[in-house]
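thought: fold this chain, then report.
action: predict
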Amino acid sequence: MLRAPETLAATTLAAKSYETAAHYSAGAYGSTPLMISLAGSSLVLSWSAGTLQQATSVSGPYIDVSGVTGTSLTVPVSNASLKFYRLRY
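observation:
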């Protein structure tokens, strides 16, 4: 039994794979699974689950970031080249 309109999301269109992944990720890990903040002259990337990947182009190819232990990575801004990050689940 539905109690409120917001408890149901329905569509007549087929969901794209990235839309399904985004819905799953938001439900499983929260709406902002990859957090980025500035600490002094460094970027801090943190996440709660998954494997951090990086690429030099938004279209990839993405590879796992080596040397990451735990769920955060600090990147000095002075050493940062153009990189794109995502999480692999």
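thought: worth noting. Residues 33-89 form one domain.
final: tokens above.
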